[in-house]
User: What shape does this take?
Amino acid sequence: MKNYSTLGSRAFSIFNYVFLSLVAFGCLLPLINVLAISFSSKSAAAAGYVKLWPVDFTLDSYVFALKKQEFLAAFLVSLKRVGLGYIVNMVLTIFIAYPLAKEKSEFSARNIYAWFFIVTMLFSGGLIPTYMVVRYTGLMDSIWALIIPNAVPVFNVILLMNFFRGLPKEIEEAAFIDGCDYWRTLFKIVLPLSLPSIATLSLFVLVGHWNGWFDGLIYMNSTSKWPLQSYLRSIIINADTMMSASDEIATMRNVSNRTFNAAQVFLAAVPVLAVYPFLQKYFMKGLVMGSVKG
Amino acid sequence: MISAKKLRQLPLHIMVIPGVIITLIYHYIPMLGIIMAFQKFVPARGFFKSKWVGLDNFQYMLNLPNIRSVIFNTVFISLMKIIVGLIVPVVFALLLNEMRRERYKRTLQTIIYFPYFLSWVILGGILIDVLSPSSGIVNQLLGLFGIDPIFFLGDAKWFPYTLVLTNTWKSFGYDTIVYLAALTSIDMALYEAAYVDGAGRWKQTLHVTIPGILPIVTLMTVLALGNILNAGFDQVFNLYSPQVYSTGDILDTLVYRIGLVDAQYSVATAVGLFKSVISFVLILISNKLANKYAGYRIF
Assistant: This one.
């Protein structure tokens, strides 16, 4: 075992604890500061009094955000997108990963399909041709534009395929002898055994869809169909005067653009915060999955 | 006649086919669509009826006044990200590994890993506030040390470094955990042997820990080099503004502006193709190297 008794070693330990704690605090500082601003009054935020704790505590910015039509509409679009996108992504991932996990001797076309999908990881048509295909296939302004073009997450397929390959072959063989076909084997035997890895992928897919903003921005002509992140981008980062609520805010006593934006940012982060403990828990498993290369 | 073996494989084909069709339409047809880089593309005419112009778009691209600086920015920003993204997580993994209080260690990991899951839109909103030269908390802090306010996001001199720093903030927690996982798999017997041989904490780190994680460090770096033309579109796009184009504009943001803002579809595709071809070669080389030196293969 390691030796901790010398003076230098103890000094290092103390330094290490202090240093790492400071860095972790530094990572949280921007988040805490903006969170505090979102709960502070207009004047306190403008005067720069708000550091780590709200000054003149008020919920007005949140109340204002939750009453704002555009914000709520965008929130709903995002929820819809996450739901639909999750189902489509996971179904396709499972249905592609399972056949690809077979040996070539069992599924003769396996390698052809595998390369067909891998090529898309190495080379892509790029932004503009993809945009044109989405346009030509009539997906513009439809929620499906946010789901279909990336319906097959190839990297997730590879992770799940590697997990399926790690399952003992005897279990599946026993099911075949008992008369199961591939469908039943997949649903009754393979999937129940793969729940931990399905859960890991699920979380990543959910967060990925929630965080998506670029496709909303380019595929949705009407801003009322934007998911939350595209909407937030336009009002906070692009400071789009058409969509911002400056006029209404000017009449509010406790809300400024700054506190209002801070509140919206945190409302958009709440779902991620909610699943974060699970993400954290499953992440290590995800790593192990990723490291088992077929 | 279909043989019994083929018939038995039929369900497997049926499972893959929907994914194949979607991939064909939304990934392979765009690859064909690349021919628009050699056309004067008009959306109403489509990929196959637009006028053929040969290499004119590439000629035009090379004559863009900012193309050199954009290529330089792309490589400069992503090289800095690779170097910092290599050193910081390794140092943190080593330091965290020296901590004995498991609970505290896990708490710290949880904290530094969190920004990884927020989008650049959310992080951008937060950064615009905290980095503001007039009212942001970062400049207030610097003011305590007598430093004049710095316009991190609006000053072309500072912008690339702001990108590297904020990117580190978002992603070093993730990389730290990857390295930490590698550290925990080092055989404890090696440490015991080193201790018996009289190695102290520092020597143990130098001769056992660092050699132990060297393969994964090499692997991550080699793979990152394959992505050198991806300087981080999501981040740059959400943080940049016209006053920092000179140092912050990268290939991907240029493609977006030429293509979707100015609607010069063919030129944008040409720039994109230029990038994809170089990236493709780099990814093949880096995967080859990763396979050779670390036994890595994704396929």
User: Anything to note?
Assistant: Chain B has two domains: 4-54, 63-294.
